[in-house]
Specification:
By secondary structure, the protein is of the alpha/beta class. The chain has 2 domains: about 230 residues, no CATH class; about 45 residues, no CATH class. About 40% of the residues lie in helices and about 15% in strands. The protein is built from 10 helices and 9 strands. The strands form 2 sheets. A 6-stranded mixed beta sheet has the order 6-5-1-7-8-9.
Length: about 300
């Protein structure tokens, strides 16, 4: 009996080069993870007051009424670290809970949930850039969980056909591995940056001088992804399958969106002339896909003849 050949979508050669950078919390999913704060009581004492990430974005600068436990910020973010937990990974448990609540209709998905789902189905490159403190591998496992729970069998089959199509067109591959092997190759091409993790410090900030702010960390993560996709695309023979390139970044924190926009204008646009960056400010729940901000034109990767 002849073994059935896997589906290969060669039409991916006609697509544009569109890639995405996603924040995770309140952007892809509304996670049940809590930030442990203390709230000032009428008598001047402090009482435990755990809050969601969305509430924290509102109260974090109100130091008169809110503070981390005992004034120690690391204690506030205990649930955002890869610490031992009897349930296993806290991040994976919270991700599964958030996904199942969406699938059961008990929770609205994050504003970038559908875009992330489509990104995976189309087999496009992406980066997860979050202020969490997990290892890169933890975030990747969260993406694998999203694929397992969210993508339908039809979407999963479409994703695999697209992944094989990209390998056939751009890498000239004619023999493919199992679905698990091909999916693993694809996931390894993406970036997973939890910018407050020791893992991130070791991989991305070694040798960095000067003050390292939260904004600096996200800038390093974004720069890494842009440089990565440029390297991937430059493997394509000059002039072959060249198409316009755009990179989308979505975040639910307006301060982060502004900082990223400034960073793109001041540094990345200079390094990559004519780049097209699209920012999505997803902080307003009344806007289904967020507020769109286009910064510049088309990335020049030196691929044209």
């Amino acid at each position: 009996m002849n073994q059935q050949q896997p589906a290969i979508n060669l039409n991916v050669a006609k697509r544009d080069y569109k890639y995405y950078i996603f924040d995770w919390d309140d952007n892809i999913l509304h996670m049940p993870t809590r930030i442990h704060m203390e709230k000032r009581q009428p008598d001047g004492t402090w009482a435990p007051h755990p809050v969601s990430t969305s509430v924290f974005s509102v109260i974090r600068n109100d130091s008169a009424n809110y503070r981390p436990p005992g004034g120690e910020w690391p204690r506030a973010f205990d649930e955002f670290q890869d610490t031992p937990d009897p349930r296993g990974s806290r991040f994976l448990a919270d991700t599964e809970q958030a996904i199942r609540r969406v699938l059961d209709g008990e929770e609205t998905p994050g504003p970038s949930f559908t875009t992330f789902r489509r990104t995976l189905t189309e087999g496009r490159l992406f980066a997860i850039v979050t202020a969490r403190g997990h290892a890169s591998e933890t975030l990747r496992r969260g993406v694998e969980l999203f694929i397992d729970l969210v993508l339908t069998p039809r979407e999963r089959a479409e994703m695999m056909a697209n992944l094989r199509g990209y390998r056939a067109v751009f890498d000239r591959v004619t023999q493919f591995g199992s679905d698990e092997e091909e999916l693993g190759r694809y996931l390894s091409l993406n970036r997973y940056h939890a910018v407050t993790s020791p893992d991130f410090d070791h991989r991305m900030l070694a040798g960095t001088t000067g003050p390292i702010t939260p904004e600096t960390r996200k800038q390093v993560a974004i720069r890494d992804f842009i440089e990565h996709i440029v390297r991937v695309l430059q493997r394509t023979p000059t002039g072959e399958h060249w198409a316009p390139v755009s990179v989308g970044f979505s975040d639910d924190d307006p301060a982060n969106v502004k900082a990223v926009g400034d960073f793109i204008r001041e540094e990345l646009a200079r390094r990559f002339p004519n780049i097209k960056f699209v920012l999505y400010d997803t902080s307003d729940p009344s806007l289904e896909k967020g507020r769109k901000i286009t910064i510049a034109g088309q990335m020049d990767l030196g691929l044209k003849p």
